[in-house]
Amino acid sequence: MPLPPRLTSLPRRALARADALMNRLYGWRGNPLYHSGAIVVALFAILLATGLYLVFFYRIGSPYPSVARITEQAWLGRWIRGLHRYASDAAVVAVAVHALRMFVQGRSWGPRTLAWVSGLVLLFVTFVCGWTGLVMVWDLQGQVLAQAGARLFDLVPIFSEPISRAFTGEHPVPSAFFFLNLFAHLALPIGLGIGLWIHVSRLARPGLLPPRRLLWGVIGSLLLLSVVWPASLPPAADLFALPGAAPYDWFYAFWVPAAGTLSPGATWALLLGVAALVVAIPWLTRPAQERRPPPSHVDEQLCTGCEQCYADCPYEAIAMVARTADPSGQVQRRSELVALVDPGLCVSCGICAGSCAPMGVGPPGRTGRAQLGTAREWLATRRPQSGAIVVVACERGAGGVTRAPTFDGAVVYPVSCGGNLHTSVVEYLLRRGAGGVLIVSCPPRDCLNREGPRWLEQRLFHDREAELRERVDRRRVRLAYAGEAEPGLVRSQLAAFTAEIAALEAAQAEEVVDLERLCEVVAVGGKS
Amino acid sequence: MSRATRVALGALVSLAVLGGLRTTSYLPYTAARDTAAVVRLAWRARGERVNQCRTRSADELARLPVHMRQAQVCERRLLPYRLVVDLDDREVANREVRGAGAREDRPLFVFEDIRAGQGRHRLVIHFTREGGDSLSAQAPIQGLSTPPRLALDTVVALYPRRIILVTYDEEREQLVLRDRSPL
Lengths: 528, 183
Fold this sequence. Notes:
The complex is a heterodimer. By secondary structure, chain A is of the alpha/beta class. Chain A folds into two domains: 244 residues, Up-down Bundle (Cytochrome Bc1 Complex, Chain C); 161 residues, no CATH class. Chain A is built from 17 helices and ten strands. In chain A, helix 2 runs antiparallel to helix 4, helix 3 packs across helix 4 and helix 4 crosses helix 8. The longest helix of chain A has 41 residues. Chain A is elongated, with a radius of gyration of 30 Å. By secondary structure, chain B is of the alpha+beta class. Chain B has one domain. Helix content of chain B is 19%, strand content 47%. Chain B is built from three helices and twelve strands; from the N terminus they run αβββαβββββαββββ. Chains A and B meet through helix 1, helix 4, helix 8, strand 1 and helix 9 of A and helix 1, strand 1, strand 2 and strand 11 of B. Strand 1 of chain A pairs antiparallel with strand 1 of chain B.
């Protein structure tokens, strides 16, 4: 049963507003909310680098004193430990933003289920990794985390002795415990690497690192924090005292109050219940069968085997295969290869439709041919004035301008994704009298289909296959980026574009008149 | 918005995020709020292993596959103990401690926290094997086992938020008190 739409629409709007704010402050290229997934990878790289340093000084025989010695190294150890701690905390925040983004934008079901579930596994491994890291310090927080974890694991009937016994004070906490912690803390990142590979396995050209400016911004900010406000060291663990007030890392110890209040069984039930709910999100959020967008289809009669759709598909859902004999028994001689869409991988983004010059591929109703038909119908019903500006806008972003038929005097032509737009539609609109076409797409990296704006820009202005024909006046075509909550950006872009088109019209009118007059004068002069 | 304003606001937002990160990373919390003292009972007892054997009837054997037709079947388990704790002549615990594991053939574990006010208290503990008389005659398994009866009768001084541990000393074969971790 799908979740109620309000459950996702409210947080989606909130996220869109946050995106708009970040775009204003940092620009869409540096918006950290757009790059949350890549920031996590960058933070893991920081954790690996700082962790390598820390492991040289950590002693499983005397965990707390060794961490205290690291913290006393004013020039290196103190801030490296701080950077390690803050990077691990920031990773949780970035993962939360990334998961929220995928959830509210409906990018968690269908072929994206693997990425969603593997992402949750990565998050769980991250939590375990963080838990072992905090226990390793063996301060008050480490003790409470260890004891709370032991109480939970005592309920699992796979251990020959209750783990809680290690922390009763009967015997010193065995070094083997700290060795196991250290081993898990070092081994789990290897699992994270494998998990990350699975997580992005269905993506073409996954963006694993944020843009350089943002990357250095994140590193610099955390470094500054760890120098100005270094990681402190709470009191050492004491098994013969009730744990008093101590600072806790709530990014990893958020479950401790529940574990302290509820019985181990109830805590397990709560944790497993929440885990089951988030794992089930792909099945809870997918639309009903009849509302699911259909996957792309290839018309083999039109396919020239150019491989452009195969190159452009952001989900590696298209393969080039050898042509097979047609039912009449004759082999198609048009090309050796033909595109084949895997419906299990296709998210119906329609980017292939925009990349196909002969208009032979795309989701039903959104192929290049279907788009031309739609444009024809749209012109017939809307009848925009000659010379009017047409705003071709993405339905999911573009300042939400597609909610109304007009925007600031311009007529709005909605498309499912900028990357889906076939350039022949732009040419068609201009030839049928539009003064200019302003295409408003989501900012790159916020495209629900990953690479829509990127390919669109190249097709419009850089002759990428299925390019806008040379005969089209580029001065009458403009590409702008705006998120869902940025109508002001569309307004300013439209005003500037309208003014430019007006100036262009005026100049062209003058040019025409002057030339004719000049010709007449020359002709008259010649005769006389 | 001018570029300078945007840069300043961007820096402010970054600082706020960093401050939030640091604060959430070191937010104080008290895991145990009460000020009581705790008497912690924690030990491992080997217990007395017993075999309860019986001979299968001919009918039972006939119902079994050929390779499973073993005439005698034995169940090995540990005899349970009863733990009784009195604090200032008031019974605060009275329960049976059975062997761990599904077959109750793993060592017994005692792990119990008893809250008490600060000050001096009389603590009496009895840890007594149960059901041994009838069963041990069947087939006791000799080995290093905890004595059938352990007892402790002492006065303890308790301090707020401190834990005093009662555990079993295998060498001395008796219950002992500890208030700090052994070296």
